[in-house]
Amino acid sequence: MAGQDDEGAAGLESVPDPVGGEVSAPAAIVPEDGGDHSGRRRPKGLVPLVVAVVVVVVVVAGLVGWRVVESRRHDAALDSCSRAVKALKGKTGSDRLAQYREAAGIKADQVKDAKTVVAMTRSVKHAEGIRQQTIRCNASMSTGDLNAAAGQAGRIDGEYAAVARAAKAVTASRDAKALDDARTALDGKKGEAARLLADSDGKVADNATRDGLQQAIGQAGQAKGDKAKAYQDAANALQAAIDQVNASVQAKAQADQQAAAKAQAAQQQAQKQPAQRQGTTRHRQASSNSGRRGSTQSRRPAYRPSGNRGGGGGGSSQVPAAPSAPQGGNGNGSGGHKVLPPLDTTHHGCNPDGSCGIG
Predict the structure, then answer these.
(1) Where along the chain do its domains lie?
(2) Distance CA 235, CA 198 (A)
């Protein structure tokens, strides 16, 4: 007994003292039947209530998570749709549509490669015509609608990308042909200018026009580059110089014609003057001769037939001799001689009754 007490004392001595003078509480003793001997009872519906609360929390958390995910999906769809529409507008702006329409109007005879025209026609048909697109992306649209709009914009964007490539090809082919045509036209114009420069020597009214043509020929030989406009401008300048030389040649030709016409008129006038002087002389001589003849006839005595004198002669008439000049008398019919009246010279030697003088 004494030994057991010693062991018990020794066991008690081996238990450490509480730190800081704290006294440890006695261990709780739980009954084997799980009963609560404290005198309080737990409610029977506590466990189902806790389960329901947990379920509600999980559902709410799920809804919140779903809304967050859906919002993110909607934002992503809106962003994708906006980017697709923006890219489409870059290919279907008013300026780009004008370029497509211009390219679509190019004919096969205007290009170097006719296949580019065929490709352009096919691409426009596949895009269902060249027109402004009206696809929109609004935040009020659902995620599905936004995705559908983005897909439509992407499809149309691809069609217009093909139109843009075809338009670029057909335009480049047209420019290549225009460049070749411009070079050929300039070469022909240079040959024409060189021939005119040689043929117009000494035939122009102003020789400065030929100097301008020579300068234009030199400038045309310096035209270069891959743009048709440079060669077209050179050809236009050369044509202007050609027109000036031609106008100067025509002006000199007209001046020469006028000078020749004046010289011919002066020569004809010089030839007419001797003939006019001869005609004037002849007219004066004729007038003088006519005057002398009239004067001679006026001095001739008028013939006056005499009637029957005395009743003899059986009615025969005798031509009397010319009356002699009166001798003596006082001129008034006295002296035994009849004085004749003065001759009428207004009828060129003939009397009013139609009788004319003899001789």
Answers:
(1) 50-175, 200-273
(2) 19
What Å distances lie between residue 111 and 63, 106, 359, CA to CA?
65, 8, 111
What's the pTM value of the predicted model, to 2 decimals? 0.51
| 303 pLDDT more than 90 | no
Tracing tokens 């389960």 back to the chain, one arrives at 51
Sorted by sequence, the CB contacts under 8 Å of residue 242 that are 6+ apart come out as 189, 192, 193, 196, 213
Q: How far is CA 189 from CA 195, 216, 220, in A?
A: 10, 11, 9
Instruction: Give the chain's largest Cα–Cα span.
Output: 259
Taking residue 151's Cβ as centre, other Cβ atoms within 10 Å add up to 13
Count the neighbouring beta carbons within 10 Å of the beta carbon of residue 89: 15
Residue with tokens 């749709």: 81
| C-beta of residue 213 within 8 angstroms of C-beta of residue 244 | yes
Q: Which amino acid appears at position 175 of this protein?
A: D
Q: Using CA atoms, how far apart are residues 185 and 35, in angstroms rounded to an integer?
A: 119
- C-alpha count within 13 angstroms, C-beta hemisphere, residue 12: 5
Local structure of 330: helix, strand or coil:
coil
Closest by CA position to 231, among listed 174, 177, 191, 182: 182
Helices 228-299 and 143-199 pack at an angle, to 10 degrees, of 40
* Exposed e or buried b per residue across 29-68, where buried means at least 16 C-beta atoms within 10 angstroms of its C-beta: eeeeeeeeeeeeeeeeeeeeeeeeeeeeeeeeeeeeeeee
Write the single-letter amino acid at 92. T
128 by DSSP, 3-state: which? coil
Band (136; pLDDT cuts 50, 70, 90): confident
Q: What tens digit of pLDDT does each residue of 24-40 get? A: 444 444 444 444 545 55
- Residue owning tokens 């002066």: 266
pLDDT, residue 104, reads: 94
Mark out the alpha helices in 36-142 (DSSP H runs).
46-91, 94-104, 115-126
- The pLDDT of residue 220 is 92
pLDDT tens per residue, range 95-111: 999 999 999 999 999 99
pLDDT at 203: 92
- Residue 203 burial (CB count, 10 A): 15
How large is the C-alpha radius of gyration of the chain? 72
